[in-house]
Amino acid sequence: MSAVIIDGKALSAKIRASIAERTTELKRRGKEVTLAVVLVGEDPASEIYVRNKIKVCGELGIRSLSYRLPADTAEVEVASLISRLNADKTVDGILVQSPLPKGLNEQKLLATVDPGKDADGFHSVNAGNLFLGRPAITACTPAGIIELIKSTGVPIAGKHAVVIGRSNIVGKPAAILLLNENATVTICHSRTPDLALHTRRADILVAAVGRARMITGDMIKPGAILIDVGMNRGGGKLCGDIDFDSASAVAGFITPVPGGVGPMTITMLLSNTVAIAERQTTNDK
């Protein structure tokens, strides 16, 4: 068996085309979609990520506002900026880029963002609504994971899904989204004994643990859907949490690294931003 590659770039391009149509329609109705990005400090990875977001915003007709603050900016100043963006009716989505410099309380600042403008879906209100099955702005990477799985054409309902990783921004929300799609969900983590016992039973396997090539072909159920969230350096090149060569010989579908989950994260961020603008436009009527 040779797994079918789930092309995140192609799926992302398809969704972005739809986003562009939605922004065009909103502009026709007098609404310019706007995303505000707050970047504190000079983390190289964050700089690249923010540049990419701004670039894609331009391609899709979304206005982007970038606020770059020095690493030694006081927490009260960052909070004040977020409060101003909350109050600005022209701003639809707000993103506070992580990680924040030492000395800043990241959870406290993220909680300062208006939940209705929380484009990343990290606010506790959105996380709580997701848990309760209520309408919520969904964290971008988990939302992208669901889209990738659905793109295979294989129904999620009734499948056994195993999520490796329990972070608040990927593992936990991905598990809840899979549960909401009527999968039976197992969450594994660093304290799970005999990990392979669980992974070999997975019809859908989401690896989001951050350890290079830790999931090998002998740990996979034949025909399974594999979603690799990992982004690691192994053997001098970028690789995921799943050993692609051995796993692709067993799985039915697999995401590559790079080119799988990565392109979907920014796409779902912008989809969230447009959805916020659409909802606001409807509420203003």
Structure description:
The chain has 285 residues and is an alpha/beta fold. The protein folds into two domains: 30-115, Leucine Dehydrogenase, chain A, domain 1 (Rossmann fold, 3-Layer(aba) Sandwich); 139-262, Rossmann fold (3-Layer(aba) Sandwich), CATH 3.40.50.720. The protein has helices at residues 8-28, 44-60, 75-87, 106-112, 124-132, 140-150, 171-180, 195-199, 244-248, 262-283, and strands at residues 4-5, 34-40, 63-69, 93-96, 160-164, 184-188, 204-207, 225-228, 232-234, 237-239, 253-254. The strands form three sheets. The protein has a six-stranded parallel sheet. The radius of gyration is 19 Å and the shape is globular. The protein starts with a strand and ends with a helix.
What tags apply to this protein structure?
alpha/beta; Rossmann fold; 6-stranded parallel beta sheet; 42% helix; globular
Topology at a glance:
Blueprint: E1 4-5, H1 8-28, E2 34-40, H2 44-60, E3 63-69, H3 75-87, E4 93-96, H4 106-112, H5 124-132, H6 140-150, E5 160-164, H7 171-180, E6 184-188, H8 195-199, E7 204-207, E8 225-228, E9 232-234, E10 237-239, H9 244-248, E11 253-254, H10 262-283
Parallel strand pairs: 1-11, 2-3, 2-4, 5-6, 5-7, 7-8, 8-11
Antiparallel strand pairs: 9-10
Helix pairs in contact: 1-10, 6-7, 6-10
Summarize the structure.
The chain has 285 residues and is α/β, with parallel strands linked by helices.
